[in-house]
Amino acid sequence: RRQRQMCIRDRDKAESYLDNNKWQQHYPLAFSIVMAKAQASYLTHDNELSNQIFTTEQQHITDVLDKTRLTKIHLLSLIAQNNMVDAFALGIETLQQLNVTLPGVENIGEQYLQLEKYYQDRDISSLISLPEIADTAPLLAVEILSCIQTAAYLIDPREYMKVTYTALEITLEHGLSNDSGKIFITHALLLCGAFSRFKQGLE
Prior knowledge:
Blueprint: H1 2-16, H2 22-25, H3 27-43, H4 47-57, H5 64-80, H6 84-97, H7 108-112, H8 136-147, H9 149-155, H10 157-174, H11 180-193, H12 198-202
Helix pairs in contact: 1-3, 3-4, 3-5, 4-5, 5-6, 5-8, 6-8, 6-9, 8-10, 9-10, 10-11
C-alpha cells in the first residue's frame, strides 16, 4: 500500500511538470500518468481519489479506446465500493461507445441458445484452439462485460444472461482473451442451471 501511495505522489509530481495544456500538447504522457494514478488509487482502495480522477480526467480523453481503458479501472473501483447500479449503467454506456449493444430482455432465453450455432458442428473442446482476439475494441468490450458481470447478476438474472451472451458471442466471433475461461465457465453454468443442458455444460 505504501509503495502504491508513493506511486501516486510520483505521478502527481510528474504531472506538475506538464503545462496547463497537457492534454493538447502531451496527450500520451498525460494519459499514461492518469492511468497509473487510477490503477494505484484502485489498488490502495482510495475510493475518493479514484472517483475524482475519473470525474476530472475522463472528459479530456478524446480516444474512445483510451477512455474505455480508464473506465475499466473505475468500474472495478465502483464494484469494490458495492456501487453495482452505477457500475452496470456505466458499463452499458461504455459498451455503446464501442458499438456493442446487448440483446433485449424479451425472449433472452430463446436467443441465448442461438449461440449454439457457433459450435454445434464442432467438438466443444476445440474452442480452446480459437485464435486470440486481434482487435483492441472487441478485446476491451469483453473486459468491460467481464467487469459488470457480477453487477448484472445482482441487478437481474436476465441482465446477467444478456452480459454473458454478448461476451460469449464476441469471443466466438473474434477469439480468445484472458477473460475467456470465465466466459466459458459462466456459459456452462447457464446451460446447466437455466436450460438443464447438463451434457453440454459439462463439456
